[in-house]
Amino acid sequence: MQALLDELPVILQAFWLTIRLTLASAVLALVFGTILAAMRVSPLPVLRGIGTVYVNTLRNTPLTLVIVFCGLGLGLVLDVSFSTSLSTNYLWLSIIGLSAYTAAFVCEALRAGINTVPVGQAEAARAIGLTFFQNLRLIVLPQALRTVIAPLGSILIALTKNTTIAAAIGVGEASLTMKTLFESHGDAVVPIFLGFAFGFLILTLPTGLLFTWLSRRLAVIR
Amino acid sequence: MTKNGDAAPLVVLTDVNKHFGGLHVLRDINLTISRGEVVVVIGPSGGGKSTLCRTINRLETIDGGTITFDGRPIASEGRALARLRSEVGMVFQSFNLFAHKTILENVTLGPVKVRGLSKPAAARRGMELLERVGIGTQASKYPAQLSGGQQQRVAIARALAMDPKMILFDEPTSALDPEMVQEVLDVMVGLAGEGMTMMVVTHEMGFARRAADRVVFMADGRIIEENTPDEFFTAPRTDRARDFLSKILTH
Asked: In this complex, is the C-beta atom of B233 within 8 Å of any C-beta atom belonging to chain A?
């Protein structure tokens, strides 16, 4: 217990990085996932094809491989650089990996939501002269989004836990910090482990509650 | 028979054909609708009435023939098609009000997003139209909070807000409770009286008698008979129409 208290600043800093990873990846995944969903329901077969291949590839690749590819493939081989600071650079590369991976799941959740919007809604929108994108943006996606808030919450919780895989390319988030602390506090492995597990619960439990509340509040009444 | 003024006809369908898979739903349809005319389409279910109605704003594509609207062949895609649709109002059997928008937003969305009207101007006009159909006090509610008859009147206001050259009614009262049919028909009769060009697919024979300039009888994908309501209901020329009328008018 003493070890936990002694290392509290380090632990909090590690969780702060976990939170930043989660939020940045969540925003990017939501944007990119929405674009993918639009591609997958678009009238253009080429866009639909690209969307389908992307989703099936990313969804069926282990996240560790995606993150390692971003770190080694993008970072070292292709020399993609976001910052001169090595740690900031790897932070962004892991955000790219996490959001690219999560976007595939966001896309599929949204697509399920789009299927729940009655076809008459889109027909009425077409009938007043809205274009395909206006229809999607103003009528179909807002209703689709409201029906899939709860599943999006689950995806966000999964993302929060998935940030631990950024440790694979040396990003010092919570799980990597936990491993480091195990080494310096060999006598306090169990308390440290429980402390970190509790830390993740503090992040994920409220997320679940918030999204359940939101999904009730924003439900479209038909 | 029809109100053929000096102006060219608004809608002309020539040899229109359509299949749903192996089913031939529209067979060699030829139909002309003049400006200001109210055409009521009646006939047995599955006869192609709704499909015909939906081809005019291309919610259904056609396999053969041509459709012109206001002198031009209807566009097949993109912005030109969106523009055509903005000029042709549509009222659906199941209302299809935007479920996540208020009543007023339902009416102002098209004018703001398609016509580029300012929000205050669209809201003023929207309120006028809602008053006119008798829903003015419900403007801030959501569609699910209104009765079917009220929803359908909002749908008519939504179509009118685009200042359409024509409105298509696809069985507008078929999903309504009986006591709500009249309030919707009253609005439609009012529109017809003001000279709106209308195509109405309906089973309401009373409306056809009262408001139609012409009745089109469809069965098995064909137009079997076209006539004034008086002549059609008192002296149908075909056996098919006589048979249909005898089934619906006896009780």
From this structure: no
